[in-house]
Amino acid sequence: MADTENETSSHYHPTTQDEQVVFHFNHWKWWFAVLLNTFLLLMGQLSAIMLGRFYFDQGGKVYG
Hints:
Blueprint: H1 2-8, H2 17-57
């Protein structure tokens, strides 16, 4: 039971070389996902600002 708790805890450290490779790959995938999501968030914010400016430059109104 102690082994099961160790594997599911957030402080799990791999012991064998195969486990270290998998752990490193999963760690890399997590950082890639964080960077990708950050990039997409920034592009979405930039697009919203540009579309808003374009809308109001073309005579758009706040209400109706």
